[in-house]
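User: These chains co-purify. Model them together.
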Amino acid sequence: MEKPHNSEESKSNNRQKRTREKILNLAMHVLAKKPKASLNEIAEAAEIGRATLFRYFKSRKQLIHELVVEADQKLENATKPILEQKLTARDTLEEYIKVLVPLGASFHFLSSEQIYSECSGIEDLYRNQLVRLKELSTKLREEKVVAADIPPVWIAAVLDNLIYTAWVTVSEGDIARNDAPGLVLHSFLNGLSPV
Amino acid sequence: MEKPHNSEESKSNNRQKRTREKILNLAMHVLAKKPKASLNEIAEAAEIGRATLFRYFKSRKQLIHELVVEADQKLENATKPILEQKLTARDTLEEYIKVLVPLGASFHFLSSEQIYSECSGIEDLYRNQLVRLKELSTKLREEKVVAADIPPVWIAAVLDNLIYTAWVTVSEGDIARNDAPGLVLHSFLNGLSPV
DNA sequence: CTGTAATGAGACATTATAGTATCATGTGGG
DNA sequence: CCCACATGATACTATAATGTCTCATTACAG
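Assistant: Joint model of the four components:
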């Protein structure tokens, strides 16, 4: 075949699936850190040829589009079950953080406005994500988990940044992976001062 | 004259000074948000012609270099007096935040690794800034302003992000300028939960 | 081991951005 | 008012990135 196509789950599309995942994964990581990264750098990071990149994604625009869609799905899949459990706001927050820290790149990627300058027509996904964050923020306020005088936009922003910071420090080896969620939760609720 | 030169504070270089400041200011803002921004976009944001941009900065590289140097100086000027005052760590922190929030763009700009991929030979400035942040973090720990079990790297990262977040939300009109420093300080020390 | 599909390398074409040169216009200090 | 000088607009070149294509090589299922 010239181009990989998804004809009814055929036998040997494992390889294709693997490279595709590889590309999406590495591209996400690279672009989250350096939005200016060229396709060359992305290909290099993913350890594939530039040509292969174009076999899977016909343009930079489409690559980014798929990254955004994938990020959105990951977040959706990770967070939906939590919201449906009808936990307390505090527990929801805790679970939220636990699942989002490992997805930090996706999370921040989707929150990053830089992307939208390269790929229009995705504002909806972004909005969804923001809406969900805002909902959680509101819930946290209602159940008095966070103080009433703190603006929701601040709550959401701080949460976003703590989660992304956690992801960055973990992937740079400065913070232990298992410590990160607790650190985020504690910093978010109680700050850094001693008990 | 062809190119503006700074010969002993001459009479009419006010205009030049103004445009130069204008460019540096707006370029900083634009690039902090979108490192990929083209010189076209920067010129547009600064409301000047692209040609003028090149009259003041012979290349993109030099523009960024000057931005970094300027950011570093601003931060240096703002923070040095504070450190020399020999305040308690807690008061140092408070003053620090007060002066840094308005400089959020510069601050974050200098912290952003993205810049170094465009302009080499400035790692020193970055290091200085980091060293200073780490020093403050250590001091905060020593004086038990922050808990002893929190890694300095986490302290520094959280502080950086809170300050930048404050600056962003202020410049987007979501948070009142005068509320921001207090919000940062409180979030940093006590988190968002109610008293 | 063998044949086929996926890949990598690299030679192109195309486009976007960086950078240069020129000239008409406009502004601000004298 | 006047004129030097900064600016904006535009046309131009250079360079880097995107996107297309071909072909030899490699990996893998049978």
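Confidence is low (pLDDT under 50) at residues 1-12 of chain B.
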